[in-house]
Amino acid sequence: MAVHAHPDDESSKGAATYAYYRSLGADVMVLSCTGGERGSILNEAMAGHAMAERDLAGLRRREMQAAQRHLGVQHRWLGYEDSGMNDDGQVPANSFAAVPLDVSAEPVVRVIREFRPHVLITYDENGGYPHPDHIRCHDVSMEAYRAAADPARYPDAGAAWQIDKLYFDRIFNLERVDAMFLELSVTEPESPLLEPLGEAREWMKNYPKLATTHVPVGDFLEARDAALRSHASQVSPGSSFFFWPNDLIRQAWPYEDFQLVQSKVDTEMPESDLFAGVRDNS
């Protein structure tokens, strides 16, 4: 089960992993904490689109439905209102980041106890980037992870369930950028992609290497891209999400990466399977 702040986050942060595990027969649940109502239209081609202008929330629900079909996952809306990202750091009243944690964690606990996942994926304490909803998504996920296993908490939300493994998303990392740069330097030394990749290596050079788990997703990059393109209001055809050609990714770093932060089962590092240890004990 993966918990995300907005529709489109599931497609940019783990979509190939979800498609991979669906191909193996695993059940995959994606939770969207908010509807992305306060987002902007980030695709110039959507300018003047009637629904984008008058009902962005409704459009983003349709986009999420399309992405869900491409990935083959189950999906739930938690129903909270997008908090936006204001320069002053303030969030609107009753938006997701303003709702008390014990209130916003309850529906996540309810889904955990119903779906009974072995693995939970969320963001780190910085939210991946400092959007109030991403940070709150981390807080809510951690609180629900703990509370779902405690029968004394939220007793009306179903029978207690202990999740075996908890991961943070670490898909954008220096190891990946290094691998792309080195592969391209050898195979296409005149490629125009080398300059921006080199710049990315420089500003990421002090990033800590936190990923513990590298999921092989090379055969599912097109499913990821189809899901991303479904979110047309947020993802343009020229988006940086499509910066690296899929053939290069398959050759250099055909993985999506995660950090195991809590585990109730034994496993060995590095992992190539989010369910490592879980299957051995089943």
From TrEMBL:
Pfam families: PIG-L. Binds 1 zinc ion per subunit. This is Mycothiol S-conjugate amidase. It catalyses: mycothiol S-conjugate + H2O = an N-acetyl-L-cysteine-S-conjugate + 1D-myo-inositol 2-amino-2-deoxy-alpha-D-glucopyranoside. Its EC number is 3.5.1.115. It is an enzyme of class 3 (hydrolase). A mycothiol (MSH, N-acetylcysteinyl-glucosaminyl-inositol) S-conjugate amidase, it recycles conjugated MSH to the N-acetyl cysteine conjugate (AcCys S-conjugate, a mercapturic acid) and the MSH precursor. Involved in MSH-dependent detoxification of a number of alkylating agents and antibiotics. The keyword Nucleotide-binding does not apply. GO terms for molecular function: hydrolase activity, acting on carbon-nitrogen (but not peptide) bonds, in linear amides; zinc ion binding. One of its GO terms (biological process) is mycothiol metabolic process. Its cofactor is Zn(2+).
